[in-house]
Amino acid sequence: TSIWFTPKSTPLEFMSKGAIIIVSFALAITLALCPVVIFFNGQYTIVKRTDTVVKVDKRFSELDVSLMVFSEGKRKEEYAEDYGDLVENIGLQSELKKVLSVNQSSPRAAFETVLALSSLQPHIKNISRICTPSPEAFRSYIAPVGLPVIFTDMLKGTRLADWSWDMIKQKYGNQIFHNTRQGDYSSKKTSYGKQIIGRTSVSLSDFIDVATGKRKPTKGEEGLYVTKQKVIPTDELEKEFYYPPFYPGSHKRCYLEPTAWIGVPGTFTQGHIDSKDNYVYQILGDKRWTIFSPQDYEYLYYTKVKGSLEWSSALNSPQEPNLEKFPLYAKANPISFVLHPGEVLYLPRGWTHFVENLTPALMINTWRYGPAAITELWSESSRAEIHKRCFLT
Which of 152, 245, 279, 389 suits 370 as a labelling partner, its CA being 20 to 30 A distant? Predict the structure, then answer.
């Protein structure tokens, strides 16, 4: 079911008024059992707000590039109320003047841009699960807003949907992973809170036998977690892997080569921020994700490691952070959910995430090259870079 709201003013006029939205709608019944999706159907214009002038080029002003709200199981009256809150919260702020003038050539400056733009986002309390949108809808309504979402059906009909532990063992079991995490995940920490975890070598076949309980782990096989490893050979990617279907250009130019994360229950990855927009495929098993908006960045006690932003000192175990040690964490707004087999998480850059394996689990992810999608609407250089990377064959 899709409900379309067509306002009597443009989105930015509504933002400036902070008014209650009066809408007309048309109800279209589809065969797909998808959540309701609301499109705010309007156009961006040049808008003056205090000392800020936001200019959007002709290509974007001609599109219905604005906002999208995802939700499930609500009546249309509740949608209108939710949307009114979103419009009020996402209004343009004078901070954009700083954002638009930032030199994004350095990683730190680019990340500051993401943080500033995220101040325009509404506060969300949970993550939405939706059917996979069209490429046009994703690029126009989802990516520029910079909010995470789960696609429930993206892998249906693909080779990845047929994966099983037995199939993986038979096809890829002879691979050896030499940097596999191993050990007690509640063990000693570094000065910036990162676990000091042992490393070992293990074949994928042996790992699967241990993870699925076909045999007990030997000494040195406890707490195994294969992280950021290539399982599918490069020459088989186009046949075996299903890349996100949202950009028409070359997969090799648009996305990093997919990597696998395979862990036994209880293993986890400490809270951190990725440097690129992330597409996460849950293939087997369940993983619990706890994510935080970029707006919570200052509450998570990040420490620079080797000149880059890396680990959150507050998020180094599945337990709630100690508020005596990390008092600002009380202001953060964690969003927790379980990612199930067949689901794909879109996690924009800037979102902190702590991930724990609840069962023997296999996840594959790919990052998109180029700047964060949230910067595309506001930056000509970002649009040019994304076009170069992901629209050209």
Answer: 152
